[in-house]
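To whoever is covering the structure queue this week,

Two jobs came back overnight. Logging them here so there's a record in the thread.

Job A:
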Amino acid sequence: MVEDESEYDPDELASARERRWAERYRRDEPLLPYPGWWPWPLDEVAYRDGDPATGMVAVDLLPVRDGIDPEAVIIRQPRVAPPFAYGWPRAAWHPEDDPDLVVHAYEWEEGPWRWTVFVQRVVLAAEVMDRVRESMGWRRGWTL
């Protein structure tokens, strides 16, 4: 016997499906390394690149105020790997490639890993980088 479909609210059914889907696949979302504190508001923290064989991972930090606050990328890679030089972060190592793009790189080492934070245009003070480094953790990415 087919039930009368007029009893069901399609919006409620769709939202229930969305909740079930989100619960099912949330476990499969990768955790990303990024700071719990950042010097300006972020709109999105998202996976950029990675290599499961080496453990390298790159994470985009995209600002709320695009065009005002700069973009940033955080890289974790093995100490023995050559510096990350793909996309706009490459300008930190090769400014001659794009003289109009100013990129600052901030590095530290922790265990077998080299961490690099690339920031467009803005120089971050040592105290700011200390706070960023101290707040690093593995969390799910997000978008506002």
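Job B:
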Amino acid sequence: MSLTINNLSLTRGDQIIFHHYQLALSHRRHCLHAANGTGKSSLLCTIAGLLPLNGGTIHWQGQPVQSVQQQIAIASDSVLLPEFITAKNLLQLSQSNWQLRWPQQLIDAFAFTAQLQQTVANLSAGNLKKLQLILAFMRQPALLLLDEPDIALDEPAQLSLWQLINDYPGTIVAASNTPESFVRQGFELVRLHAL
């Protein structure tokens, strides 16, 4: 596993998020830690190809991330899901677009069956987080990006999440304000430095 960020510059509006930022991750499990508002989510979204770089490069396994997007998936509140369709329809769209199997095991793991008929707009924060996680895990990408994955989850869902993480064969980069549980699970802690 190799994720390399060289001279990353990233702005949002007038705010500079990163300026000539360098980071190299070489383990299977990393947890990015920093205070709220310091760029954790922006960094994950940039790695996933959802935010444009203002400068620099990001490489996954030696390839620019722009050329390997099919190998990367993200679960993040920063990724806006269409609110007008049901959770089931959104899962079906992802299933069709990525030619995947129906994620019944993930639906069962997160006790999400009752929410399938709800529109995304009507999901609680915890159920929206479950949907984000199902969408990301169902792709089984080589690089899985998880932005505050345990926030808003009830205890059974958190236990399911940790089981999925422990069993996951690929690389996981998580971001968290409270990284202690990730460190206990064997994640290498990476402190993002503020500008």
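Note for Job B: The beta strands are 3-12, 15-25, 29-33, 55-60, 63-64, 72-75, 143-147, 171-176, 188-191.

Please reply-all if you pick these up so we don't duplicate work.
Q.
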